[in-house]
Structures are given as C-alpha cells and as structure tokens.
Amino acid sequence: MAIPGPDVVRALRGIVGDTHVLTEPDVAASYLTDWTGTWTGEAAVVRPADTAEVADVMRACAAHSVAVTPQGGNTGLVGGSTPTPGDDRPWVLLSLRRLDTVGDVDSQGRCVGAGAGATLASVHAAAAGAGLAFGVDLAARDSATIGGMVATNAGGIRMIRHGDTRAQVLGIEAVLPSGDVFTRWRPLRKDNVGYHLPALLAGSEGTLAVITRVLLRLVPAAARTAVALVGTVDVAAAQRVTRSIEASGRLIEAAEIMTRAGVDLVAAAGVRAPFDSGTTLLVETAGDTGDLSEALAAAGSDVVDAVVEAGPAREAWRLRESHTETIARSSTTPVVKLDVSVPLDRVQDLVDRVDRLAAAAGVRAVQFGHLGDGNIHVNLLDVPLDDQCTAADRVLRMVADLGGSISAEHGIGRAKAASVGLGRDDVDVAAMRAIKSALDPCGIMNPGAIFADP
Amino acid sequence: MAIPGPDVVRALRGIVGDTHVLTEPDVAASYLTDWTGTWTGEAAVVRPADTAEVADVMRACAAHSVAVTPQGGNTGLVGGSTPTPGDDRPWVLLSLRRLDTVGDVDSQGRCVGAGAGATLASVHAAAAGAGLAFGVDLAARDSATIGGMVATNAGGIRMIRHGDTRAQVLGIEAVLPSGDVFTRWRPLRKDNVGYHLPALLAGSEGTLAVITRVLLRLVPAAARTAVALVGTVDVAAAQRVTRSIEASGRLIEAAEIMTRAGVDLVAAAGVRAPFDSGTTLLVETAGDTGDLSEALAAAGSDVVDAVVEAGPAREAWRLRESHTETIARSSTTPVVKLDVSVPLDRVQDLVDRVDRLAAAAGVRAVQFGHLGDGNIHVNLLDVPLDDQCTAADRVLRMVADLGGSISAEHGIGRAKAASVGLGRDDVDVAAMRAIKSALDPCGIMNPGAIFADP
Description:
Two copies of one chain form a homodimer. Chain A contains 15 helices and 17 strands. In chain A, the strands form four sheets. A seven-stranded antiparallel sheet of chain A has the order 14-11-13-12-16-17-15, with helices on both faces. The longest helix of chain A has 15 residues, at 347-361. Chain A is α+β, with helices and mostly antiparallel strands. Chain A has four domains: 6-95, Uridine Diphospho-n-acetylenolpyruvylglucosamine Reductase, domain 2; 111-220, Uridine Diphospho-n-acetylenolpyruvylglucosamine Reductase, domain 3 (2-Layer Sandwich), CATH 3.30.465.10; 226-323, Alpha-Beta Plaits, CATH 3.30.70; 331-410, Alpha-Beta Plaits (2-Layer Sandwich), CATH 3.30.70.2740. In chain A, α9 packs across α12 (323-330). The two termini of chain A are 17 Å apart. Chain A is globular, with a radius of gyration of 22 Å. The model of chain A has no long low-confidence stretch (mean pLDDT 95). In chain A, a hairpin with a 4-residue loop joins β16 (364-370) and β17 (375-381). Chains A and B meet through β8, α7 and α15 of A and β8, α7 and α15 of B. Chains A, B: One of its GO terms (molecular function) is FAD binding. Chains A, B: Its cofactor is FAD. Chains A, B: It comes from Gordonia spumicola. Chains A, B: This is Oxidoreductase.
C-alpha cells in the first residue's frame, strides 16, 4: 500500500487539485525512478503549487503517518529523492517543481529569492540579468533545482571560489513535518539570533523539512576570466600548477582535473583535448595580472602542455562536462559512481590506488573532479553486476583510510546510508538522530535517506 | 548556592587539580564579570587543561545538575559567557583558556587546528608563519579566543571577503552535556555526510556543547593591499564608492564606516583623521589593477576627500579601532551598545533614525561598523541609567522595523535574550528549543543565554 489509502488521496486532491496527484504508475514513473535508474519506489506523486499547499499536504501526511520524500529536479545520484524501494508504508513523493518562481534581483542587497523548483540555470539567468552571478554552478544546471541543491548542499565547479550552496543561503522558507512554516527571509549578511537553522537544513536531504523557497546570495560577476587546459604528468603536478597561478595574484575560479582514461574516452566520442598528456587540468581564473601564459611558464616543468583561452572557453569546459554522459555510454554495465573527497595532499594517492584497484579487478577506472576541493568522482566501468556493491565498498573504505569523506557533494541518500559509519562516529550519529527526532518526531520525512534503518 | 556543594567541588578538584577550581570571590571575579562590567554571576570557576578534563567536568556537572557556562577570552559584549545574575542554581564557569594550543599549519591542506582557548592573534601568527592568513579578524584579537569566536560566530572586519567564522570551520571537537566527545576532524573542503553539526554549534553560544578544538580553514595572504580613507557626504555615498572600487576589479578586503560624531571624538582623544568630512569610509583592497586613486576618481563627486596608502595602513586602522575605547571613556554613563544589521539599502536610513532618536533624547550617538555587511555598531552615550533599557529597546525595534537583525555579530547572550522575538518568529524559536532539548535534555548548558526562561 505504498500509495496512501483513498481517503488520504482524496484529501491530497482537495489540496493540490486532481491533476496534481499522480497515482497511475506510468504517469508517475519519471518521478519514482531516480536519474541513475537504480532506485525505484512506490508513492503517490503530489505536485503542490505553493508553500501553502505544501503545508496542507504535510498536515495531511502527518495526520495519516504518510512518509514524504521531497523531490526537485530528480538529478541526484544517491537515491535521496525517490521512495525507499520495497517499503510498503503509505508514501508521498512531493515534487517541488511547480514552485519555480525566481524573484526580482535585489541589486543593492545582492540577493534573489527563488522557489525550490527553480532550476539553477534560471537563477543564473536572473543574476546575469542584473550584472551579478550566483556562486554555485554544476553540469546539471538545466534540471537541478535550487531546493534540491540546498537540501543536498551541492558543491560543483565554483566552490573553490565562492563556497558550497550552504554558504549562499541568506534566507530560507521550509515546511516542517507538522505543517508549520519555518521562515527566515531577511537579506542580511550578518544575523546571529540563535541557531543557524538554514545551515542545518542545508544538506539535510529532506529528512527534516521541505524547503520551499530560498533567498540566495549573489556575487559580482567574474571579470577578466581566462581558461587554460594544462597537461601535467600527474595530479600532484596539477596541484602545484594551480598554486603557481594563484601566486601570480589571480583568483582561481575553477580547477578541474581529468585523468588520461577519461580524456581518451571523450576523445573517442569526439571531444578532443588539444594535446596528449597524462593528466589534464582545466583552470579558470579571474583578475588581470598579466598573461596567464606567463603564470604557467612560472610553473616550470610541471606544465607539459598548455592552451590558454581568454573569456569563457566552451571547448575546454565541454571536454570536462562530456565525461559523465560519455562514461555512462561506454560501460557494459551500470557505472559504479562514487563521489568522494580526500585531504589535498592525498589526492594523488587516491587516484593511484583506485587505478591499481581497477587494474587488479580487470575493470576500467575514470576519475575526474574538483581538484581544488580534493573532490574526485570515481567511476568504475564494466564492473559485473554481482561485484558492484563490493567494488563500491572497497573504494569507500579506501577513502576512509585516507582520511577522506565518502560523500563530498552528492550526499548520502539511500545509496550510502549503510556506509555513514565510515564517515561519522557513534557520538556524531547519535547527535544527528537526536536532531532528526526533535524536528521530525514521527519519522515521516524521507525515511531511509541518511539513516539506513527507518 | 551558586557555587556547587562541597562534594561536587571535591570531584571537580579531582579532575582539574586544586589550583584550577576557583571558588574565592576575589580570585574568580575577573571571570564572573563580563567585559562590559554589566553582567556578574556566581559560580565555581573551573579551568580544565584538555578535552578529556572537559569531558570529565561535564560528566560531573550532568550527574549533579550543575549549570555550565563556557568562557573563552571573556571579550563578549552580550553577557553570554558569565552566569545568569541572581540565579542560585549550582553553577560552573568553564574557562577554556588553558586549551590554547595552536597546531602546525597544514600548508597543502590550508588549515590549522587550534584549541578553544587559543587567541585569534596566535592563529593569525601561525597562519602568517606559513605564508597564509586566517579569514576572520577583529579588534579584540589579542584576547578573543577561537572557541568563543566559533561559539558566537564572530564577524569582524574581513567578513565581506572571507565570510563569517562559521565559514572557516572545517572541523570541530566539542564535549556534549553528557560528557561524550563529538569529533569531526578531517581537513576536507567537501564532506556531506549527514547534518552539518559544526555549522549548528557555530553561533550556539555554549547552549549545546563545549567547543574544545577547531580545525580552521586558512586562505592565501592578501597580495598588493592598499588602504584608503575616503570622506563622503553620507553613508549611501560611501556605499557607492565601495561599489565603484569593486568595479575596478579590485577585491574589497574591508569596508568600514565611521560617522562624524565618532571621528570627532577620537580626534579629540588624539587620533586625527586626515581630513574633515561628514562620513569617513575606510576601505582596504587587494589586487593590482592600477592605482587606487584612479578608482576613487571614477567615483566622482561621491568622494569629497581621500587619502590612499599602500600596504598595511596602521594609522587608518587606528582611527577605526580607537572608537570602542574612546567611546567608553567619553560617556558619563555606561554606553548603550547595540550591534545590529540592516539590508544594505537601509543603512543610511538606520543611521539617520538613530541620530534623530539621540537628538530627541538629548544624548549622543556614535555609529560605526562594517559597511559591506550592513552591520552598524550603535553607541548611545550619556543615557541616564534609568533610561538605558528603554533606549536599547527603541533601537532594536527600529532595526526590526527596517527588516534588520537585532544581533549582527555579537550574539544574543543574556543581554538580548528577551528580544529574540524581534528577530525570530514562534515556529523558528520552537524549532530552536526542540534542538536545544534534543542535545541538552537536562538544560545544563549555559541556561539564560539565547533563551530567556531557563
């Protein structure tokens, strides 16, 4: 009975309208299966139009002990925004996509309000229209929604410059499991009145409340940007190159790393790197302290090859952003995808160990990611289905051994819920559970996400 | 019986040693009265040496229902780190000053671990020794401790550039009221495994746990800095000048504002401004995009006077940092000090309204602060003792009317606990209380701070 009973469905239809409660499997399917195709649950899909409707839906669900999983663009990679497979509790998948309004940019206060369902691209467009920028960017920008990005504390390619999504949140509106509406909505840079609950909701993956609107900090648009693709012998050399560029006085706006296997793979798919090197660094900078080529020359023999482009360099970024889809198409089995981070002095170590692990197992490893954050996306291709759990677990344990995080920017969701012990100790988990119980005493908020047992 | 009974005192002496439990009033006095001299409580002062001792002290206090107020450098301005006056519960003031170790800087990972009792200045020194910087700075740097700064989420003069103290916290160690030690201590830029409890502890003012150690993010030292003192006709003009400088491609490292009354006051005390203007802006920039004077010229008639200095400009900063002490000496009664923020387009409005309020009441107003953050320190001088509460309340209500915050960077403590309703609504306060109860079920952590009723 994962779809709530007829009385509850009737109540939900009364709140959001008949057409916005989807119970037919084929109509609801695109919501109930996650982007990776790995996670499918059962639920009634409910599509409220605004915060008031979300509050009424939450009240109805609380009254009938219906589990609720909020969903934004359904671009998550850890099964965090689809119901738990096989769980037969009555369940609502609460789609926030209709809450997609982006407000007027406050140019003086440098902020903009956006509904949870607004796409990242729409926020970028609004900011750009006011000569400003939003400090978070990622490849799924046309689908990923602001609510989901805050709920997972998304990272992405600009974090080295502007911080994570949490750091962009000036205000938040969220519906608590009780249906009460939590609101902090002041365009203030400093506001220390009690606990910073927006920072707690950021990254809570729908387990505490339903985020409905967010007031986002905007930043000045980057001036005088340049992009370089730099070939280096290894990851450590690429790290030295970024430090050398930084020492020239420029700001690093992004520092992405691609290993040989991935660059070769996208080359075969038609997106060619401009040279043939072991490791490729994509570095984007801002600030006009001379020619970027000079800064690269100062990096000496760490630079094997380099191509510098002024302004937004679509080709360089295409090389990087083609990885995910190319990898998905190239593997004979579903790709084992792990989003991890390690201390900056262990990145080379991680990449080497993963390569050795893959070689020993006879599978292919493609690694790329956000070098400046120590955040590597590990992709294992052609792993037989029966070996996938073991392979993932081995990588996560390796990361834990290196003092890293089993979830850098994708979150825990359901995919890593059983592995939380690799990243948090018992005291920490107990404190998290105490907070979960305090804000969601009946346990209806996204059960199965973050915490493995319901 | 604000000093715990003899059995508890004996237990505490057994943990930290006889000499580190202070129960004689004259010995304990410097801990039990706050920096402003307004708040005095009664307690046994306990000075543990390390985290293990803090944990044992907390266990002893929990077992005997002893209230605990953590204290760092005792530089707070809202009575947050001294016991509640007149409260006769058994109480321990837990001084963290002995936990003052600053670890080795991790140059590659750009971070450093510091004990809660380490001063801000000692962290600055460690960072500078490695060619890096810590992103938070404030005038009380020689006394303010890292633990207190995290517990209050201190702001200061660099926030416009590097964010608040919360944003600098990569890892944290804290003792929960149970005596359990909470630890996240990985030098990672991205680590999304469940709730971000360090962000919750930051700004919790000792009401949830005792922070014992912090792993702090470091940033590159600013290159090619310059400082300008700029005279403008008013605050709004000063805001336009900072935007104009920013548009030149420089990074704003600090943007401080001083109104005429304060500049005249410090001039009379011997620290003279280089010109005679209505409002004085101190702006510090980094980046070498030409002469700062040119950027000021581009601001046109908004600049009435300007003096530019290259490198660290001690005189300009002395003008700004002399305000607090000069004001304290100049008032015939204790200064009514309020730390507030408003939306950036309301700063001029706030300053004008406070000036009018002071004029109508026949008292003097000195206003200065962090222009880039909309954070103004309102000081009312010569307010008769009987009128002080009313005067403070009028300013806070004015700030709330302007959509501002009654506490920008100093926190709530006990001074503003009764005014929390001006900044947070009932749903918000209830959520905060639920979290407080979840992590501190017996209510022993700093009762009276943030929440007015015990």
